[in-house]
UniProtKB/TrEMBL annotation:
Organism: Skermanella aerolata
Domain Thioesterase intervals: 27-106
Hydrolase listed as a keyword: yes
Protein name: Tol-pal system-associated acyl-CoA thioesterase
Biological classification of the source: Bacteria, Pseudomonadati, Pseudomonadota, Alphaproteobacteria, Rhodospirillales
Gene Ontology MF, one: fatty acyl-CoA hydrolase activity
Length: 156
């Protein structure tokens, strides 16, 4: 069985997600806001794979991430029982911010018997915040891990 947290593939983190009944509307189509939940899982698992899980950051560094901006382009719907893959990559790193580019693909559409179709593209910016809610610089270990990941993208 694969890692439930997905895996790093070069500079891209890949997270498989199955569409369950709870993810869909009355018509069996994934409800639009659930794509944000899927993307959140992708970002969380990418950071965890880099050694910077949310709980660890709060406990060791006293910081957390908050979404500042999100752009979503819905291209195609997913349906009940579809197998999806959330791809997460770093688009940009600032002093206190990270811009993630995320794409959600259908890997296997059981009903239509199709593979690998782009469903959603998301561009999302998060800021690193201290306990008072003010932006602070990314912790050194996080910054190093993200810089290393971005370097993998340049080398590929």
């Amino acid at each position: 069985m694969g890692d439930p947290g997905g895996y790093l593939d070069g500079a891209v983190h890949r997270l498989p997600i199955r569409v369950y009944y709870e993810d869909t509307d009355a018509g069996g189509i994934v409800y639009h806001s659930n794509y944000l939940r899927f993307a959140e899982r992708g970002r969380t698992e990418m950071l965890r794979a880099l050694g910077s899980g949310h709980t660890d950051l709060v406990q060791s560094e006293g910081v957390a991430f908050a979404v500042r901006r999100c752009e979503i382009d819905f291209r195609w719907p997913a349906r009940l029982d579809d197998l999806l893959e959330v791809e997460t990559r770093i688009a940009d790193i600032g002093g206190a911010s990270i811009v993630f580019e995320q794409t959600i693909f259908i890997v296997a559409d059981m009903a239509a018997k199709t593979e690998r179709r782009l469903l959603v593209r998301i561009l999302l910016t998060v800021f690193c915040l201290n306990p008072q809610g003010r932006p602070v610089r990314l912790p050194g270990p996080v910054r190093l891990a993200l810089d290393d990941l971005q370097a993998r993208d340049v080398i590929s």
